[in-house]
Design brief:
Length: about 550
């Protein structure tokens, strides 16, 4: 069988994936480009971003300030060369988006507006009302439609990367509408599959954020980087994890404890509500432990008081509170994965032919803690870089033949069908394993960590994986079998939960979002480094530290 062949195949139709597709098409209009996405692109998680995208656009700002804030925010394990490139490119990308039609909000004088965000020393977060992600994604999606050479396979779930002779030669994927497995050959593949927040019980992430691309790359032998670095956002709704955007604090919302105090004065006195997310999340948990939180059915919470401000819809719809009269209950919830697929500044990974960008990648921008609003800009800057680099490589690369792809697809189809649809021996329920994994990750690999809790989690995950091997899939249909895709996703999440826990055990210090109670201090002597995790088939992840690149900014104490 002759499988379709593309020059650049992008897995993911979110901000990073669409930006990469456009960049590839612009680099060489003759290339054939394909976007494969498990949901219709406009449903990607990028759509839910409200707050904004950071860029030093205003005259009082500078790329140096943006770079320093990002490096300090990362607790000094971002790659400073990557940061410099990012802050110089971000304004160019935002203006490019403006030219493609993104309706950025404006000041009365017509200039693009900016608002303050956590950890940023100046107003640099550009926004499009309270729907920045929606408008950015819409702009990118519409722009992608202009290019005849960009084709799409929507609602197609990628189950593995096809690797032959040490090169990525395409993907195997399940067409969710027909239930048929098929292969697509590609000279280059770009993974832009987003975050993995659903590994946690309380997360701001959409249900589709299950870390698929990270697990796909890892299993294909590409290392993951800094997987212990998970961002908790201080203001999620306690019941659902739905995010109350940081812009609410940017615009003047207060956080108060059960004494009615703005407790952040004791933790981030100079920044208060505009401190970075890791420090505010820790301050909240510390206050809960001192008995100064409010008790609720989903654990402790604080008040986010905007009675002197605005913004009613989320409060009314999701907690039945009119925020004009009452404060909003909020607690720290999982929000963003700093860790991801190890890649260089062009998005290239260690596997020839494979590139990556966006939240699933770790290019070295965010280090141990991402500053809010850097991520949307990261998707643009490094999505474009990966698209260009993949296009250049595709111009030179030979087309993979159908022969090995055919054999690889047969293996993969057998694996998926046999393991999930044909096996009738299973007894374990998917949802039970998933909920237990999510709750235990919240408990042991959350805002604060200890060796004891992490070791306990390691054992639990080994147990979940054994139970997963005895999974019973009740739904054996082929058309939109969401139980099957949920099982594939849980398989990815268990793999990543193991890597995250092992990485957290191995970093015996506190830095950025990784707060060890048993090692409360940052230890630059040993850990001013990125942690690289490599897959060992049948064994535990292999972990090693790699020194971080420092250009201008030597580590200092991270106080605000
Ligand atoms: C509620 C919320 C608010 C946020 N607000 C902001 C903000 O204001 N500013 C900011 O900078 N950042 C914000 N972030 C973070 C930021 O939005 C994300 O990091 C970013 O949008 C991720 O984009 P992406 O393109 O990498 O991935 P996504 O937008 O998540 O897209 C992933 C794509 O991969 C596809 N995919 C995944 N797995 C598979 C598979 N197995 N097969 C096929 N396709 C697959 C999906 O279908 C999807 O198209 C927010 C995040 C959340 C959750």
């Amino acid at each position: 069988m002759e499988f379709p062949l593309y020059d650049v195949l992008i897995v993911g139709g979110g901000g990073a994936g669409l930006r990469a597709a456009i960049a590839a098409a612009e680099t060489d209009p003759g290339l054939k480009i394909l976007i494969v996405s498990k949901v219709y692109p406009m449903r990607s998680h990028t759509v839910s971003a409200e707050g904004g995208a950071a860029a030093a656009l205003r005259p009082e700002d500078s790329w140096e300030n943006h770079a320093f804030d990002t490096v300090k925010g990362s607790d000094y394990i971002s790659d400073q060369f990557v940061v410099e490139t990012f802050v110089r490119e971000a304004p160019v990308e935002l203006i490019q988006l403006e030219h493609w039609g993104c309706p950025w909000s404006r000041d009365p004088d017509g200039k693009i507006s900016a608002r303050p965000f956590g950890g940023m020393t100046t107003w640099r977060t550009c926004f499009a009302a309270d729907k920045t992600g929606f408008h950015m994604l819409h702009t990118l999606f519409q722009t992608s439609l202009k290019y005849d050479r960009i084709e799409r396979l929507d609602e197609t779930f990628v189950t593995s990367l096809l690797v032959e002779d040490g090169r990525c030669v395409g993907i195997a994927a399940l067409n969710q509408r027909s239930g048929v497995m098929s292969a697509v050959r590609a000279k280059t593949v770009i993974l832009t599959t987003g975050g993995n927040g659903r590994i946690y019980a309380f997360s701001t992430n959409g249900n589709i954020c299950t870390g698929d691309g990270m697990a796909l790359a890892y299993r294909a032998g590409v290392p993951l980087k800094d997987m212990e670095m998970v961002q908790f956002h201080p203001t999620g709704l306690p019941s659902t994890g739905i995010l109350i955007t940081e812009a609410v604090r940017g615009e003047g919302g207060y956080l108060t404890n059960n004494k009615g105090e703005r407790f952040l004065k004791d933790y981030v006195p100079s920044k208060m509500e505009l401190g970075p997310r890791d420090i505010i999340s820790r301050a909240m948990v510390t206050e809960f432990e001192a008995g100064r939180g409010f008790a609720g059915p989903y654990g402790n919470y604080m008040h986010l008081d905007v009675r002197h401000l605005f913004m009613r819809e989320l409060g009314l719809d999701y907690v039945g509170i009119d925020i004009v009269h009452d404060p909003i209950p909020v607690r720290p919830v999982e929000h963003y994965m700093m860790g991801g697929i190890d890649c260089d500044i062009t998005g290239a990974t260690s596997l020839p032919g494979l590139f990556t960008a966006g939240e699933c990648a770790n290019v070295g921008l965010n280090g141990a803690n991402r500053l809010g609003s850097n991520s949307l800009s990261e998707c643009l800057v490094f999505g474009a870089a990966a698209g260009r680099a993949a296009a250049h490589q595709a111009q030179e690369a030979k087309a993979p033949t159908s022969n090995p792809v055919d054999a690889l697809l047969k293996d993969e189809t057998r694996r998926v069908e046999k393991k999930y649809l044909e096996s009738r021996q299973g007894t374990e329920k998917l949802a039970e394993i998933r909920v237990e994994m999510q709750r235990s990750m919240d408990e042991h690999v959350g805002v604060f960590r200890t060796a004891e809790g992490l070791k306990e989690e390691e054992k639990l995950i080994a147990g979940f994986r054994q139970r997963f091997a005895r999974l019973k899939i009740e739904d054996r249909s082929h058309v939109f079998n969401t139980e099957l895709t949920a099982a594939l996703e849980l398989d990815y999440m268990l793999e990543l939960a193991e890597v995250m826990t092992a990485s957290a055990i191995n970093r015996k210090e506190s830095r950025g979002a990784h707060a060890r109670r048993d090692f409360p201090k940052r230890n630059d002597e040993h850990y001013l480094a990125n942690q690289i995790a490599t897959h060992v088939p049948g064994g535990k992840p292999k972990l090693e530290f790699r020194p971080v690149r420092i250009t201008h900014w030597q580590p200092q104490a991270r106080t605000y």
